[in-house]
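Box 3.1 A note on notation
Throughout this textbook, protein chains are presented in two layers. The first layer is the amino acid sequence; the second is a C-alpha cell string describing backbone geometry. Keep the layers aligned when reading.
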Amino acid sequence: MKRNRFFRVLAAAVILSLLMIAIPMTPALAAATVVISSPTTASGPPGTVVTLNCSDFTASQTYAVYFGGTSITTGSTSSGDFAAVFTVPSRARGNYPVAVTTTADGSIPLVGGFNITPEIAASISTGHVGDTVTVSGIGFEASKTVTIFYDTASVGTDTTDTNGAFAGFTFTVPASTKGTHTISGRDTTVSSPTVNFIVSPEITVSPTSGAVGDTVTVSGTGFGGSKTITITFDAVTMTSTSTSSSGTFSATTFAVPEASRGTHTVKAQDSSANYDTATFTVSASITINPTSGPSGTNITITGDGFGASRPVTITYSGTAVTTNPPSVTTNSAGYFTATFAAPVGAAGNYAVAASDGTDTATATFVSTTDATISQTTTTTAPGYVGMSLTITGTGFTPSHAITVTYSLTATETDTLATMTSDASGNFTILFTIPASVAGAHTITVTDDIITKTFTFTMESNAPPTPELTLPLVDTKLKDKLFEWEAVEDVEPKSEPVTYDLQVSIDDTFSEDSLVVNQTGLITATYTLPDEEELESTDEEAPYYWRVRAVDAASNASGWSEASTFTVGFSFEFTGWVVWVTMVVVAIAFFFIGLWIGRRGGGGGEYW
C-alpha cells in the first residue's frame, strides 16, 4: 500500500518536471485582436462609417463582420493585419456587439461593442419665421415617442418605428429673433445632438400695389428682440415701431406718399441694422371732389401715380372735357390737378377718367340731375281730379323750356304746364291733375334732353248712389220732369259729380229697351225735350227709370233702384171735378124726370 502511493507520487513529479522543461522551449502563438480606429468613441448614429483595425489574423482568409449578430460585410485577408470598414445599419438606440470572424481564427469581438446614438436632420437650415421645417430622426428608442424641440420649446411629437427612426415630422418656425436657433429630438431619456436653424428678418407688405394715398400695412418677424424698427419708402422715413422680445412687429401702417407709377422699395430696419425689404407698385389713381352734384357742378380732379411730366387727357362719360388749366401735365412725381364742369345729363353714375397715354385711372361722379314731385300717390293713398302738385327740378338744361305732360289714356296726353329753367337748370312748376279715369297715369317732366317721369295713381272710390224723387213710383210723369237727390263724392273727391239717367220700356234696361239715355248731367234734375217725348202708356206697361252718379275720375256709383211711371191723359176725381160732375148729374136727372113726366101725363099735363 505504501509502495503504490510512493510510485504514484514519483510519476507525478517526473511528469511535472518534464512539463516545466518543455514549456519554455515551445514558441509562443500570438492572439488575433480587433480594435476600433474610427470613430474613436465607438458610438454614433446609424449610417456612421466604422473602421476596425484587425491584427494577428491568419493570412489569406475570408472574414465577415457581424453587427449585433448579423453579418453586414465580408472581405479577404492578404496578411494577418487588415482594416475592416462597415456602415452602422439602421437600428434603435443601444449597444451592439461587433465581431470579426474567420474560419482559422474564429470570432474575435470588438471589446465594448458599438453604441448607437440618436440623430436628427432638418430639411432646411436657414429661413424665416413661419417657414415649414421637416424633421427626420434615427437611432432613437424603438417604437417610442420622440419630442421635437425648437430651442427649448416643444414643437410636437412623432413615434419611431422598430428601428428607432421617424420621418416627415413638420413644424412651423415660431416667432424668434434673428440668428442661430437649435432643433433637437428626445426620446424617453436621451436627446439627439442639435442642428442649427438660422432665422433671417422678413417683412410682409399689404397690399403690394396701389395708389398714392393708399394705406399700407407692414409686419415683420426675425428682427432683433425689443428693438426700434424704422420703416422707409424709397429711403424716406414713413413711420417707426418696436419689436417684441421675439423680434416681431405687426400692423404698422403708412400712407403711400406722392410717387410716380412703378416699383418702389419698402424697408424695415431695426436699431441693430437687421433689415428686410419688399416692393410696392404704385399705380395711377384719381380723386374727384365733389363726387356728386347736378349738371354744371365744378369738379376738382387730382391725379397721382402717373408718368412723370406727361400730358393728361380728362374725359367724362367717354368724352373729353374742357379743363382749367386747358392743358394738364403731371409733375416729376406723376401728380396733377385740374377742374371742369359736369356736363348736362340725366341723373346717374358717370365715369370720370384721366389718361397719360399709358396709364388710365377712373372715378365715379353721381349726377344728381333730378326732379322730385311734391306728393307721391299709391293705391292706398291715391290722388284725385283737381289735385295740385309741384315738381322741383335740379340740374336740367339751363335756361331751357320745361314741359309737364299727363297721360290721359295709353295714347293720349295732356300738357299741364310749361316754364323755363333758370341759369343753373333749376325750376319749380305747379300744375293741376285733369279729369281722368281711375288707375295709374304717367306724369312726365322734360327739357327735351333730360326727362323724369312719375306715376300718378288716380282714386277709384265711387260716389254714393242717388235716390229718386220725381216721378213717384207708379205715378204719371208730370211736366216731363225727372228729379233725384244730389250727392257729394267721397274722399278723396274727384269733382264735379255728374249723373247718368236711363228710361226703359222694361226693367232690363237693355240697349234695345232704352228710350232715354243721358250721361254727364251736371244737375240732379232733367226735363225731357220735345224730341224725347214719351208715348202714352198705362199702368199695365209702365216706363222704368234709374239714375247713377259719376265723379270726374269716371268712378260710377251703383244704379239707383228702378222706379216706374206712366205717360198719358190724367183724370182725377177730386176737387172741382167732383162738383162739376155732381152739377152735371143733377141737371141730367132733372131733364130725365121732366121727359118722363110729360110722357106719363097724357096730353101735356105736368106733375
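The radius of gyration is 62 Å. The domain at 468-566 is CATH 2.60.40.10 (Immunoglobulin-like).
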